[in-house]
Structure formats: structure tokens, C-alpha cells
Design brief:
Chain lengths: 303, 191
Amino acid sequence: MAESSSTAARPASETGTQLVKRGLAEMLKGGVIMDVVDPDQARIAEDAGAVAVMALERVPSDIRRDGGVARMSDPEMIEGIQAVCTIPVMAKARIGHFVEAQILEALGVDYVDESEVLTPADEAHHIDKWAFTVPFVCGATNLGEALRRISEGACMIRSKGEAGTGNVVEAVRHLRSILGDIRKVTQADGPELFEWAKRLQAPLPLVQEIHETGKLPVPLFCAGGLATPADAALAMQLGAESVFVGSGIFKSDNPSLRAKAIVEATTHFNDPAILAKVSRGLGAAIPGLEIGKLETTYADRGW
Amino acid sequence: MAVGLLALQGAIGPHADALRALGATPVEVRTPDQLAAVDALIIPGGESTTMSKLLDTSGLAQPLRDRLADGLPTFGTCAGMIVLARTVLDGRADQNSYDGIDVTVRRNAFGRQVDSFEADLAIDGLDTPFHAVFIRAPFVEEVGEGVEVLASVDGHPVLCRQGRVMVSAFHPELTGDLRLHEQFLQLADMA
């Protein structure tokens, strides 16, 4: 060839496309994303094999205990975590707070979580996520909510569960609701799809796409209340493609050991012999809360 | 034709789809027994530090080294390229090297996610450009004797081949273009 490819200039390229944004979510599949509040925890998470960390000032169980308004973390704290991590760093913005998201994008975080764990900034509108180069993950409790977030530009959906409780029951409810309705939509006929779109309050083209493909157009991860390797494997067997673990790791007796065990359980989620091996001797898990006794359920935030 | 797909973590599904579209049968590999049963292997994109840990904890580290030394045809994309490289820069101190191909790779070389990009790439041996997706991608800093460089970005190799090992910094599994998977199956005498 006249021109060696090794000396070729950079071809015309495009950043912030849906392919690039959803692509990173693809790369995080089969992994564990861990909440961390400082560089030491970030190191423990990366050492344990986390695929990404979520940088935040307080884990959800502390937000729940302390009350008050929960906001985006201090940029200095996020940069401190970026400085010690080689894996992707995510951070949370309040629902509807597009300026917090702009700041997180300027910091170079790898994913923004528009999160119900923080106190919402807007009671009607979520962030226009198409306007950003950085990709977004959003929570959902049901298929309609997931599709509304995708129509706003979210490139990853996580079932919400109930963060900071150490109780997996809401995560299971939300995953089953999303995946159960997907299965029903695949069986619907043409006129029924119109009715599904109305019932889900979701765009018809997305409902039709799910009817064709049998899955969400973006990866579906699970979050909110996971505390044990068995919880992670349960989410994966139900059909989640990765798991977020927040308070469940660093509010347990032995975070490093538990984090490693949850990473292994997420990979070998279908192998009970390995699950039995990694579940041994982890010390006490986060104590956990009953959902009926909560003052605030974060999962109700979002519209 | 059973092609192994290292299924510890990462973008496993899209590679499986590409293999099926070419008439090959993808076989997920998570244990030493599963690795022993395959005649070729794809190491997908994902998080290379996570894969490195899981290769250790799953008992696959030594068996993979042995198979690579025996000439197992292997295709590594993105994180898979990092796993297969002789030397990794900007990795973790405890990140294993599997020495499948004589290249030095820099992790996250193109920057963070906001710098991730897609572009049409000229590839030696292909008539038309290949639409390539780079996600927090690595590139090759140095190649050893006998390594063919098939494509580059900004002068940095992003697609290389040595013997029966192919590595790409980008994700051919995400764009539906099967040409590189097809080349790999030919390399593995499976096409």
C-alpha cells in the first residue's frame, strides 16, 4: 500500500454517540459497581475487582440516617477518587438537576447517575440526557419508567430497589416488574402494543422495539438493597446484567472480603457450588431494614 | 465449530451473536474444564482489572497461559487486548500479563469516557473502511518482532496480529460488521 496505516492520521471521529454511551454499559456487564465515599474505599473496591465505582459523599444508609437534603458530591472528593482509580468512576446528580450533571461532565466522570437517592431538584422533569456527551444511568421501578428514562436519553437502566436498606425485596419486585412486562409485550399483537404504550406512558416506537427484540434497548442492571453474594446472584438469575452494591459492602463487617465474594458471585451466578464457597465466613452483613417501617422510600422519587 | 468466549465479565453477548451469524458455536468459558474443551478463544471487552482478578480466582490463569503457549488461536478486543499483551502500561501492579502477543499496551490511552469515539478505520487487507468504536480504549505503544500492525489511529497501532493471536483496541462486536470475526475464524482454521 502506498500509505502505511501506521502513519495514518486520526480519521474523522465522533464522541458522545449512543453507540459509544451504550457501549460502555455493555463493557460493565457481568460486573459489580460499588459505592465509595473516599479514596481508601475506592482502592478496596478496585482491589476486589469492581468494574466501576460510584463516588458519593454518603452511602444511602447514612443519607437515610442523617436526613436533610442530599446533593451532588464535592468535586474535590470526586477528583480524589478519580486520582486513585483506573476503573470507570460514576457520580450522582439530583433528579432534574442538569447543572450538577454539567459539573460532573466537566469533571470527566465516566457515567452520571440521575439518582433518586439524592433529593430531587425538579418534581416534574428529568434531565435532558441527549444534551450531554457523558452517558447517564437512571433508576426505574417498572417498564414504563424505564422507557421514559430511555426516551430522555438514558443509556443504562438500573432497577431501583430500595437503597440503603440491605433488603433485596424491592430490587426483586422492580426487576420482576420490568422483565415480566417485557415478556408480556413480546407476546402482544399490533393493537395491544398501542394499549401497552398508553398504559406504560411510554413512546410507542420503544414499545414496538421491545416487542421485536424481547429486551430493553439499553443494558438493565440491578440496584438497591443487595447485601450478600446470594443477593447478587439472585438479581443475575432473574435477568439483571450487572449489579450495583451500595451500603451493602462498606456497612458490613469485612468490606474487602465481602466485595471480592460479590464479584465472584456475579460472574458465577449460575454455579451454586461456587456461590456456596464464596458465601462462607464473610462476617456480618449490613443489618438491614424492613421496607414497611421506612419514613422515606426513595423508589417513589422519579416521574 | 466451537469457539470459546471468556465469560468472566464484559460484552459477551455481542461476540456470541457475531459468532452465531458466521455459523460458529460460541461456548462460554468460566472454568478450567470449559477452557480445556475449546479450540479457539475470544476475550471480550470489559474491565481488564476485573478480568485479571477473575482469571485468578476462577483457576484459569495458568491454564490460559499454557493454552496460549501451545498456540491457541485467540482474539482479544479492548480489555481482551490488554489481557493478551506482553506488557501493560497504566495498569495495576497486580494485573497479570498473559504474553499472548508481543505488544506493549497503554490502558485508557485515549482518555476517559467523554473522549470515547467512533470512526471509520482503514484496515490493511480490507477493501472498505471498518466502522470502529473505541470505549475508554487502549492503544499499542510498542510492537515486537513478527507483530503485524493492521490499523492505527494517530500513529498508534489499534489492530495487530502475531501468529494465531489477533488483538483490537476497538469493538468489532458492537457494529454488526463481521469481517474481523471472519478473519479470526480463518486464522483458527475454522472458516
